[in-house]
Amino acid sequence: MGVLADAVILAGGHVTGVMPRALFDREIAHQGLSELRVVNTMHERKEVMARLGDAFIALPGGAGTLEEIFEQWTWSQLGVHAKPCGLLDVNGYFSPLLTMIEKMVTEGFMAAPFAAMLAVDTDPDNLLARLRAYRPPACKWSITRCAEIHP
């Protein structure tokens, strides 16, 4: 995250960091951020990031990265928000995950329009363009209802 923040700052962008107090107390917070918000818990961190974000992009990362993008993607499927979610697939990192998402659709655990809500691209500019053009599907909540709307 620090490397990405440094690149954004170097390009003249604004970076808002959100860090739980427990991690702030144990780690060295990035000193060059435009803004750093220290919150009480990880749950509060995710809530603040969800509120501040216009879109959500995951880059290759670990379990926390997946947990955070999955939460936002799920919230979008449920209609909690209508913000786009995407994966920047660097060097095929997300290929196994994409195979699993296809399996969820094939096995009836997810409607195809819900899977299509997650934009995936290998090129950052293309991914951003797809997120800008995002329109949520008409269906929410139900795979059955979604299948009726999108046969």
Report helical residue fraction.
Answer: 40-55%
Alpha carbon gap, first and last residue:
40 Å
Quaternary organization: single chain
Strand order of the largest sheet: 3-4-5
- What is the element string, with H for helices and E for strands? HEHEHEHEHHEHH
Largest sheet: 3 strands, parallel
Number of helices: 8
What is the number of beta strands?
Answer: 5
- Please give the radius of gyration in angstroms: 17 Å
Q: Main attributes?
A:
151 residues; alpha/beta; three-stranded parallel β-sheet; two-stranded parallel sheet; 8 helices; 50% helix; 14% strand
Report a brief summary of the structure.
By secondary structure, the chain is of the alpha/beta class. The protein has helices at residues 2-10, 21-26, 42-52, 63-78, 95-106, 112-116, 124-132, 143-149; strands at residues 16-20, 35-39, 56-58, 85-88, 118-121. The model has no long low-confidence stretch (mean pLDDT 90).
Task: Describe, in plain words, how this protein is organized in 3D.
With 151 residues, this protein is an alpha/beta fold. The protein contains 8 helices and 5 strands; from the N terminus they run αβαβαβαβααβαα. It has a 3-stranded parallel β-sheet, with helices on both faces. β1 (16-20), α2 and β2 (35-39) form a beta-alpha-beta unit. The chain is globular and about 45 Å long.
